[in-house]
Amino acid sequence: MVKEKHFHKSVLKREVLEALNIKKDDIYIDATVGGGGHTKAILELGGKVLATDIDPEAVRYVAEIFSIPLEEKDGRLSGKGKRLILTQGNFANLARTAREFGVGEAAGVLFDLGVSSHQLDSAERGFSFSKDAPLDMRMDQNLSVTAADLINGLNEGELYELFSKYGEESNSRRIARAVIRSRIERKIETTKDLVETIEHVVGGRGKIHPATKVFQALRIAVNDELNNLKKGLEEATSLLKKGGRLVVISFHSLEDRLVKNFFRQREDLQVLTQRPIVPTREEILENPRARSAKMRVAEKQ
């Protein structure tokens, strides 16, 4: 059983419901179900939901909440309730997932991006620099390449490019060089190994932990997050009926920039948020992990 405390409170819940404009018996897709908070709120307002997540732990947890029996087929979990379809999958394949469960079009699609609190709090997943664990960072354990594989396998130039491109890390060159030096003595296999290597060249903690951007870069690379997001947005747009809403919550500038540009470039989407919606001060005090959230909304034309 997955403990409830491991799942974070849903970010911007009221704002998400307003943006989706929930109507009774319309079908909505939660492309990142996580702890199920947004899905639960949509169901309470009378909507029907196709909920998916790449993380099997999230799928199992939400199945427990709604008492949905799960079946495993071809390595994927799925189950059906009266108003909820729950399945494990990558949102890059959203259209195929929808077809598989007989969903032709949706009144709204929600993406709540980034690492959920239960992934950060589960030390063995290797997402957190505050807990020592193997350098894994795979959202889907079926993926073959881990963060340790990248850290120990890439050359200095490739590491520099990775940290710069996906982490926007200003000390990328120095950190890449330090990683190479550390590898001469022994492999970097745990989060602690990597954090110590970074702190040795960057120094102590400032406003944000010195390992934050490097960990972000590795997570994005391991899970191919930006390419999957672009594919997911394309598939979501194709599934929306006219007047349907696409709602995306991002947690760092690379995601937000990608979403903003995607919305602007699509002629079949009308942007409803010229500036992103952000959490209130009260929500951030109650849930500090919401502080970097930005929500953008577009409507299918």
TrEMBL record:
Record's subcellular location: Cytoplasm
Binding site for S-adenosyl-L-methionine: G36, G37, H38, D53, F91, D112, Q119
Coiled coil: none
Keyword rRNA processing appears in the UniProt entry: yes
EC class name: transferase
InterPro entries xref list: RsmH, SAM-dep_MeTrfase_MraW_recog, SAM-dependent_MTases_sf
Role description: Specifically methylates the N4 position of cytidine in position 1402 (C1402) of 16S rRNA.
Entry protein name: Ribosomal RNA small subunit methyltransferase H
